[in-house]
Structures are given as structure tokens and as C-alpha cells.
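Action item from last meeting closed. Structure (559 res):
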């Protein structure tokens, strides 16, 4: 069957591409390498610990063998293991002297079922960063180009948050914000009064007002989102974009199929479709279309382009520039501080709010005040109360336990820094020259290391965090300035960057391949810089914008 468009991947951007293209009247094939998961049929979503074979904690030895990378992710447990990749079955390699933990979710919906839902706009401080300090290549767009698409995405997915009027963290189309707890309210006031900085509630794709016309209810405040949400309270492909695409009657979905190559016709300088492998039986198939959107996830999309080598393009499809695979990024993050606030003992909080707080970026904006770095950082975290207080030692065991269960525990506040990652040619993706997966596809090799800029940013972030917590009356008990291993922010991006010049970039301002006009890459691979905000909202806005442009080009006969 001939399609108007093929969308490779069904995650956050794949769902948006399918929705936008089908609603424009195009016949679309969505291909997903993972299994089908039907909305509302999340196996462990509402199960209590006593209903789980291992009471929800899981077998640490088994996980260490089968899911060594996922064990480092705090959302990975017996409830959620089915939503994460088994690395033994889906191998990748790292270059010598490199470390990178690649956390993946191969299933219908991809990581939209497991993401942290933090949804922040970028600003012109982010889009001009490369041009200003000379790292990487200049973005071919600015905030004004993306602002209406941010509006569109936020209104559709539902983002709760508080307007703050910050140029570095633009406000959006928000649902009512979730509430700060008593300690966070106190710290917010102190940080503003003493430092002129903004602590605000996390902007999260969890509904606080139901979207009943779409069958989505408001958030239940359970904070077990990575299990899947049959209420549709958080945005996922299954709860939002996939139903909208299916409603058009224009969507065909194929799961359990790894796309191994995009087919290219050198005579017409067009891609013609894709080739894929059925993961259940190993058989191979193909599909054709007038254009192709790659939304397999940043590294997988680059992997696919590199593996789509041909006589006409021996170094990979869309790689006339020679920069395909370079300048990959992930946020440098670390636990900057933990502080105790004993003065709030006895004060309680209720519910299990599925978001934290954010301290917006304040370095290297109008004044370049970073020590040893030219980019920004922000913090995420929040104030937490331990589950119970301390029982009296002189009491009997039963009485002590009763006392603990009925006594509010200690308040502590955590700030985790997320620092901008400088784009570097040395951080790159290549095809492993020897290793393949079980289907004979070359493994992706990752070469990555943080540099002196990220180290300097996190050192300053640690000092700043301690200063803010102390000024707010907190007792700082620890902090770190060392970045986690690459990949642990789960914000991998870059490798097929957008840019003005075809000689130094892979994509133009429409997320369209410079070399091949009917091929688009609209996931994280297109990013030319990382900013310090979570990137998913920007991915979605760029995807919606690219789809609008692609449909117009198709109708005008330009692709």
C-alpha cells in the first residue's frame, strides 16, 4: 500500500506527527519497533504491593542482570519494568573511555508512557546561545518562530503551571497550577527577596482540569505515572495524539517492526519508503510513501540515517555535510543540595503531587556572570516530608510504631541542577564496526563525555544552592558538583542538528533534511543546543510546525 507519509516511532513526537498529518488529510503509516499497549490496559497501574509477586520492590539480582542501566532510574521497579527496554535484547556499545547510559522504552507510545512530564518553553537566551558563545552552530529559528506552536501543543496536551513573567522561561497556555507546600512557599519567598530568583511549581503535562471531550480526567495525584494512566490525566501518545489520529480514519499502525533503513532514489533525490524487520519472526518487509518523518528518538533516528547507507550516500543518508551523528548532548545534572528544615516539623502535607518545583535559570543571561561557563542551569526538586516521625524509645514496640505512624516526619528540601550541555564534535554517534544486534543490524556506538564547561556550571550550581538553602533557614547536609553519567538525565538529543548552512547542519528551519527534501527529522535529533530546560515540549512544538510546513510543500508539489 502506498502512503502519503510514514512516521517512524510512536513516542511524544511520533504521536504528534501522526496527529497533524492525518488531520491534514494524509494517509499515514506509523511504524513502532515495540509491542502494542492499549490505552487503559496498563497491567500494573492500579495494583497494590500485595498483588505483585515481589511486592513491588522487584528482584535486584534479576534487574542487575537484565536491566543494568534501568536500575539507575528511580522510576524503574516491578510495576514499570514492562515499559523499559531489556538491554541484553537491545544492545548498544560505547567508545573506549566513554560512559553513556541509554534509557529507552520500546512500545507503542514510547517514552510518552514513562516521561517526567515537565514541560517548559525555551527562550531566545537558548536559541541564540550557540551564536553568542561560538559553541556549535546557530539555530535558524528564534522564539517568535516557535511561540504559536508552543501555544498549540500546550492547549492540546494540557500543561498546568503558574505564570511568572520571566523572559528566560516564557509563560504558556496553562491549566491551574498545582500547589506549593509550606516549605516550598517559604523558600520561594526567601529566594525572591534575598536573591531576586524565581522558584515556581513545575510546569507539568498533568491535567488539573478535565478534558472531558477527549475522555481525559484531572490528575488523581497518585504520582505513579510511569505505570500508565488509564484516566488520561497525563499526556501520552495513547491518551491524546493517537486517539485524535485514529479518529480521522487515515492512520495505519504497525507494531513490533524495527525500521532498519530508509530507501533513497538517487535519480529523483527523494526517499521512497522504509525497510523493516518483524521482531517476532525476523521476516523483513517494506512500505512506500511520498515522504518520511523520523521520530524514533534522537539516537535511534541518527542510527537509522547512518545505517541507510547507499552507493549514492556511502556515509549515511542525509550526511553530505559529514556532521551527521556529531554534537550529541544530554543535560549535565547532579544533586546540588539536600537541606533540612526542622522549623517546620509538625506541619503536614497531603496527597502525592506528580511534580516538583523549579528554580528558573538566572546565570549568563543579559550579564555573563557564569564562572568558567557561558550557558545556564536551573534546578528541579522540592520539599518532602518523611513518612513518619520517630517513636519513643522507652515505649513498647507496638506503642512506638503507633507513635511513628501518627507523627509527622522531618522536612527536607532537594535541589537537582540541570546544566546546559555544550555541543561538541567529539560527542558523537557512529555505527559499531563489528557488533550487530540479533537481526544483523550494526549496533549504535556512543562516544560521550562532559567537559570543563559543564563541570564549572555544576560547581557554581552547588555553591548557589547551598547559599539559597542556608539563607532560607535550611541546614545543608550534603551536595554534589559532579555530573551523573551521560544519559542519566534521559534528555539525549542532537546528532542531526538544525542549521542555516547545509555544510554544517543536517536539517533546515523546517526540520527538513537539506539534502533530501521529502525527509524530515522532528525528534530530539534535530536539536542544535540543549538549553537547561526539559526538551520534550520543544520537540512537540517543532514537530507540529514541521508537519504544517511539510503538508504545504506536498500540496504545492515541492516534495
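Sequence:
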Amino acid at each position: 500500500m502506498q502512503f502519503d507519509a510514514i512516521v517512524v516511532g510512536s513516542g511524544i513526537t511520533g504521536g504528534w506527527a501522526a496527529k497533524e498529518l492525518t488531520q491534514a488529510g494524509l494517509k499515514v503509516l506509523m511504524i513502532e519497533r515495540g509491542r502494542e499497549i492499549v490505552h487503559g490496559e496498563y497491567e500494573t497501574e492500579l495494583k497494590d504491593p500485595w498483588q505483585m509477586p515481589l511486592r513491588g520492590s522487584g528482584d535486584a539480582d534479576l534487574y542487575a542482570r537484565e536491566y543494568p542501566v534501568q536500575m539507575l532510574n528511580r522510576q524503574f521497579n516491578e510495576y514499570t519494568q514492562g515499559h523499559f527496554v531489556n538491554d541484553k535484547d537491545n544492545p548498544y556499545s560505547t567508545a573506549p573511555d566513554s560512559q553513556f547510559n541509554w534509557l529507552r522504552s520500546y512500545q507503542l507510545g514510547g517514552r510518552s508512557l514513562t516521561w517526567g512530564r515537565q514541560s517548559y518553553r525555551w527562550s531566545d537566551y537558548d536559541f541564540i546561545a550557540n551564536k553568542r558563545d561560538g559553541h556549535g552552530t546557530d539555530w535558524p529559528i528564534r522564539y517568535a518562530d516557535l511561540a504559536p506552536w508552543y501555544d498549540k501543543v500546550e492547549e492540546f496536551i494540557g500543561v498546568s503551571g503558574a505564570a511568572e513573567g520571566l523572559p528566560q522561561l516564557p509563560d504558556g497556555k496553562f491549566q491551574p497550577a498545582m500547589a506549593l507546600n509550606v516549605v516550598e512557599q517559604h523558600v520561594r519567598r526567601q529566594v525572591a527577596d534575598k536573591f531576586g530568583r524565581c522558584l515556581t511549581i513545575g510546569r507539568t503535562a498533568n491535567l488539573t482540569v478535565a478534558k472531558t471531550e477527549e475522555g481525559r480526567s484531572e490528575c488523581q495525584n497518585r504520582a505513579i505515572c510511569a505505570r500508565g494512566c488509564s484516566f488520561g490525566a497525563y499526556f501520552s501518545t495513547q491518551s491524546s495524539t493517537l486517539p485524535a489520529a485514529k479518529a480521522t480514519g487515515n492512520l495505519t499502525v504497525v507494531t513490533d517492526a524495527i525500521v532498519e533503513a530508509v530507501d533513497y532514489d538517487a535519480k529523483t533525490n527523494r526517499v521512497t519508503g522504509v525497510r523493516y524487520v518483524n521482531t517476532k519472526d525476523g521476516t523483513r518487509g517494506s512500505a512506500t510513501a511520498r515522504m518520511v518523518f523520523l521520530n524514533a528518538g534522537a539516537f535511534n533516528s541518527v542510527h537509522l540515517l547512518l545505517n541507510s547507507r547507499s552507493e549514492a550516500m556511502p556515509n549515511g543518508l542525509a550526511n553530505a555535510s559529514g556532521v551527521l551523528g556529531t554534537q550529541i548532548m544530554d543535560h549535565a545534572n547532579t544533586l546540588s543540595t539536600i537541606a533540612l528544615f526542622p522549623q517546620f516539623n509538625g506541619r503536614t502535607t497531603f496527597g502525592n503531587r506528580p511534580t516538583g518545583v523549579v528554580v528558573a535559570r538566572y546565570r549568563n543571561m543579559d550579564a555573563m556572570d557564569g564562572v568558567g561557563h557561558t550557558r545556564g542551569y536551573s534546578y528541579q526538586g522540592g520539599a518532602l516530608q518523611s513518612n513518619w516521625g520517630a517513636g519513643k524509645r522507652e515505649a513498647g514496640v507496638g506503642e512506638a510504631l503507633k507513635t511513628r505512624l501518627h507523627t509527622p516526619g522531618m522536612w527536607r528540601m532537594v535541589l537537582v541542577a540541570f546544566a546546559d550541555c555544550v555541543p561538541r564534535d567529539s560527542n558523537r554517534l557512529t555505527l559499531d564496526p563489528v557488533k550487530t544486534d540479533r537481526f544483523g543490524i550494526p549496533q549504535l556506538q556512543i562516544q560521550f563525555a562532559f567537559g570543563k564547561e559543564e563541570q564549572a556550571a555544576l560547581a557554581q550550581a552547588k555553591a548557589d544552592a547551598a547559599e539559597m538553602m542556608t539563607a532560607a533557614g535550611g541546614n545543608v547536609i550534603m551536595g554534589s558538583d559532579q555530573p551523573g553519567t551521560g544519559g542519566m538525565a534521559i534528555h539525549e538529543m542532537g546528532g542531526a542538528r538544525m542549521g542555516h548552512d547545509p555544510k554544517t547542519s543536517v536539517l533546515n528551519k523546517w526540520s527538513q533534511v537539506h539534502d533530501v527534501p521529502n525527509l524530515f527529522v522532528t525528534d530530539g535529533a534535530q536539536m542544535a543546543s540543549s538549553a537547561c530546560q526539559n526538551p520534550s515540549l520543544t520537540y512537540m512544538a517543532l514537530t507540529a510546525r514541521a508537519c504544517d510546513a511539510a503538508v504545504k510543500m506536498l500540496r504545492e508539489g515541492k516534495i
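Note appended to the action item: The mean pLDDT is 93.
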